[in-house]
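Lab notebook: predicted structure, single chain.

Context: the supervisor wants predicted structures on file for every construct in the current expression panel, including those that have not yet been purified. This is the next one on the list. No modifications to the sequence; it matches the entry in the shared construct table.
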Amino acid sequence: MSELLNRLIADRLDQAARILERDGANSLYVRAYSLAASSVRRWPISMAVIYTHRGLEGLEEVPGVGPHIARVIRQSATMEEAARILAIDPATLYRKRKKIALEE
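Prediction complete. Output recorded below exactly as produced.
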């Protein structure tokens, strides 16, 4: 399960890197997201497990993951985990979360 979750998170980080690159962002940011994606994809422990036990500090121990990307991973890891528990796909969960936020 950790391999699948880490792959999903890495895919999101890669997607963010592509969007940043497309939008002409500083190449350092693009490279940071790409490097973090590569590390997360290969990391043997689930990002959700790391966050649960060590918080953002634990995520920052993954090579290439700084404070900002750790927060991005936290959001992705918790959304993916919630989706798994609720047995719905993450995209549906994200849409529902946005709708609830708009209603508040």
